[in-house]
Amino acid sequence: AKKFKTLEWCTLDFDRRVDSRTIYVGHRPCPANEVFIPPKFCDNRIVSSKYTVWNFLPKNLFEQFRRIANFYFLIIFLVQVRVSTFCCTKQCYSDFDILPQGYEDWLRHKADNEVNKYRVTVLEDGRRIQKESEKIKVGDVLEVDEDETFPCDLILLQSSRDDGTCFVTTASLDGESNHKTHYTVPDTERDVESLNATIECEQPQPDLYKFVGRMHIYKNNEEPTLRSLGPENLLLKGATLKNTQSICGVAVYTGMETKMALNYQGKSQKRSVVEKSINAFLLVYLCILVSKALVCTTLKYVWQSKPGQDEPWYNEKTLKEKETNRYLNMFTDFLSFMVLFNFIIPVSMYVTVEMQKFLGSFFISWDKDFFDSEIEEGALVNTSDLNEELGQVEYVFTDKTGTLTQNNMEFIECCIDGHQYKYRDASSEVDGFCVTDGPMNTVQQKAGRVSVEREELFLRALCLCHTVQVKESTEQGQDGQVVPPLQEQRGFIASSPDEIALVQGAMRYGFTFLGLESKTMKILNRTNDVEMYELLHVLNFDPVRRRMSVIVRSISGETLLFCKGADSSIFPRVKQEEVEKIRMHVERNATDGYRTLCVAYKHLTPEEYDQVDSGLREARLALQDREEKLMAVYNQVETGMNLIGATAVEDRLQEEAAETMEALQGAGIKVWVLTGDKMETAKSTCYACRLFKRNTELLELTVRTLEYPGKRREDRLHDLLLEYHKKTVQDAPPAKTRVASQDFGFIVDGATLSMVLNSSSENNLHDYKDLFLQICQNCTSVLCCRMAPLQKAQIVKMVKNSKGSPITLSVGDGANDVSMILEAHVGIGIKGKEGRQAVRNSDYAIPKLKHLKKLLLAHGHLYYVRIAHLVQYFFYKNLCFILPQFLYQFFCGCSQQPLYDAAYLTMYNICFTSMPILAYSLFEQHISIEMLLENATLYRQIGKNAMLRWGPFLYWTLLGVFHGLVFFFGVWFLFSNPALQDNGQAFGNWSYGTIVFTILVFTVTLKLALDTRHWTWINHFVIWGSLAFYVFFSFFWGGVIWPFLRQQRLYFVFANMLSSVSAWLVIIVLILLSLLPEILYVVLRKPRGPYARQVVL
């Protein structure tokens, strides 16, 4: 009764919490005589789409017109509807982005419908009913079959397995493809359909590894049975049932409240640095456009203010014109000049840029160097908008397991009482350790220093201290003796590949784990005898303890605790005289890049076990501070242990991982490793990848370094940040004089990072973040270990929003990397073993990490140079186009008389000059790919948006002004001679404009030809073909009388122009004069190497 009162008090205390919910299993009232008021929860619909049919047009148009260019095009289009009709194509340019976005959102709707309309089995009143997934409600009891995905978050009630367990894979959630074991709630395995129970649990929260709740089970008129619920009972939406025929579970979180939905970070619209530069340049040219219109409007009314100029005798005003308000006329004239000069804004550039990005992305997909024969796949481009961003990366954030490493664990060696054992065909002495091959009994005969009992105790620890399950049953021999399958044929299931590697390592030395049946663990020893142990408790691994333990009881009644974990976690809890003979072995293995674990054991007396058992049961029923109470019990029992030995497991590096990281650092890119793994293993991987070198001074900011006698953690954190800041920032020499011995590496863990990012205001939050960020930015490499998925995104966001807004790139292979992939400017997915969630959410996907080198140093470099030249060239050629039109107004009384024919105005950007620059932006290689890969430092030359800074922009603008002045005044000088034709007739104003336009088209096209360093047949075809097309069009347009034109201004103008020798002379001379500086540079410049075809930045 006393115990029940305690539980009742806990229940009342739990009910008072606002962050809890009560769920009725099967929607049945509990107890049955109570009034049932169904609680309201969200439905199970998943919505990842951005628009609906009703809001797509207004919402998308609002987003489109937030861009300066599109808003400008809208205004100009509305003005042209009234003033002019020859430029109606501008609205089509704005529509170019709307259609793809609508199609992409339609695909998202389609994917949502596939999920929401998926048929699931619901148990209602003893019947199995098929329902659509979106109709699932909290409290429904569902049945899920093998290889099916859980449609919502479920509490496991029943399993088809005899031991009440089931296995799931969570590759789409946390990136781990290994099988995880989940357990049914006791007392619910047989009568699920008639189960009367309520569940009290916490409100939805995104942590995948935390869940606190309890179940009240009502039977007849008895007092309710109370069962604790934890993450081992929770089946998450998106996980897949494996190696289990079917399970039954009750829905606790549905729809957008599931942990998967709460962890999903929606895709934001990523904008490249090139687009930001285009917007800045656009503002400058808008100011130039407005200035030109204001100058011409002002001069027009100044000129008309003179007597007789406003209303000459040959052009008298109508009555309506005389009555019109003068200021309204001025505004109308201003708009007319805006329309006349609006071609200075390169409208077609946006379409050309989109085409260049879309077509250019195929070169990544087609690159044969990206093809991987193992998976028979190549690179994948999900977002073509960021091609040029690959050439501007300053920070790379990479996952470790599966990205830097293969996530394929192999048992390498072990150490027992200071003696090393390797499974190899050699025998030698190394550093005082015994290195030998074969089974351990052979070792004992050779060395004579380790007893067989200690060896077998160590191997039993490896076979018992884990959560591994056997996938396939053992076979029976002819005499009934158990015969295990071969090592290659035996299948194991575990949540961590490390555990499988250790169990397989024990198999090499004669101890085979046969499986777990009804809480009984079976081991086949060297003599083929089956040993059985009762599994009493599993003390699960967690990143704070950094160890896991099991408590088992042998047939003889002996109670044992076996523990394995990191050396920093095990050494303080064992007898110190046993530590030194193991420490050197562990440190050497860690230096070699192996994952090391220490193994210890402890005998428990009946009294000790009873105390631990009661403590664990009481802690697991707690709803408040459950983790802290469990931790206290764990720490109490895991003391005074005996150290047996240590293991070394290798997670091999990805192919060419070290070379790739070295190349990225040579390119000036800083590499940060963000991993959920432990610090020692991650540090070893960083050494193996050459991110940390032997002369690198490591600065550690972890929970271990914060433990300081007599100081609070917050104070110690502040002191360490100041110390490291002084060392890396204040006392650091300038970057140009820094030597290799002064390189720093920074190590931080997730718990300390939380303290830095979530400090209270009294701890100087901004100073903490700023100090931390400055330390990181002044280190050559940074290692962040024990990171949660959202913490990875926080790190990326912190760097992305820092001073200078550096371009960031995240690369990972698992679903736990999705948040940082979405957060970074560029997200790269690796087509690895941990599902395809990272690939689906990435901007680019590659089969192996080694392909990142060519993706950045070659493709990224070339994409940036191409599109930067495209942007500058478009502004240049449009300035050359409109400047003569502006100058012409000074010679026609600012009357808005166009210099060029309407056909030329329309065709200039669409046909005459568009294809050469598009071909250039697709095929140009100013430096060969071989040279770019050999010399990574070339990547630095284009860093910090070097080709789109204000200096190059000013150069191209002045070049456009120079060419425009040459075109206009060169032809004006020609026209100072009144008779240019053989018959003595003078050219008119349309001939003047046609000559200027001809020089313009040939000059800007030949300028691009001079800039081209890598010629293909396509470049030749579009450059010379564009010039030929212009000549053909001019003859054709002016040689035919078009009936649909009210006035034909260019009738035989082009033919008459070419009949004049003077016109031919001035065209040739002005083209050569304009291109003379460029020709001299090409002739006199010095080549930079066998592959160099360097372009001026």
TrEMBL record:
Record keywords: ATP-binding, Cell membrane, Endoplasmic reticulum, Endosome, Lipid transport, Magnesium, Membrane, Metal-binding, Nucleotide-binding, Phosphoprotein, Translocase, Transmembrane, Transmembrane helix, Transport
Transmembrane segments: 280-303, 334-353, 903-923, 953-975, 990-1009, 1021-1042, 1062-1084
CDD domains: P-type_ATPase_APLT_Dnf-like (cd02073)
Stored Pfam families: Cation_ATPase, E1-E2_ATPase, PhoLip_ATPase_C, PhoLip_ATPase_N
GO cellular component terms given for this protein: early endosome; endoplasmic reticulum membrane; plasma membrane; recycling endosome
Enzyme Commission number(s) from the entry: 7.6.2.1
GO biological process entries: phospholipid translocation
Positions with a binding annotation for ATP: 399-401, 499, 541, 564, 595, 675-677, 786, 792, 816-817
Positions of the catalytic residues: 399 (4-aspartylphosphate intermediate)
Ranges of residues in domain P-type ATPase A: 116-259
Residues covered by the P-type ATPase C-terminal domain: 839-1086
Binding positions for Mg(2+) per the UniProt entry: 399, 401, 813, 817
Catalysis: reaction(s): a 1,2-diacyl-sn-glycero-3-phosphoethanolamine(out) + ATP + H2O = a 1,2-diacyl-sn-glycero-3-phosphoethanolamine(in) + ADP + phosphate + H(+); a 1,2-diacyl-sn-glycero-3-phospho-L-serine(out) + ATP + H2O = a 1,2-diacyl-sn-glycero-3-phospho-L-serine(in) + ADP + phosphate + H(+); ATP + H2O + phospholipidSide 1 = ADP + phosphate + phospholipidSide 2
Domain P-type ATPase N-terminal positions: 39-81
Gene Ontology terms for molecular function: ATP binding; ATP hydrolysis activity; magnesium ion binding; phosphatidylserine floppase activity
Localization per record: Cell membrane; Early endosome; Endoplasmic reticulum membrane; Membrane
Membrane topology: Multi-pass membrane protein
Cofactor(s) annotated in UniProt: Mg(2+)
Primary location recorded for the protein, binned into one broad class: membrane
Sequence similarity: Belongs to the cation transport ATPase (P-type) (TC 3.A.3) family. Type IV subfamily.
Protein name, per record: Phospholipid-transporting ATPase
Gene responsible for this protein: ATP11C
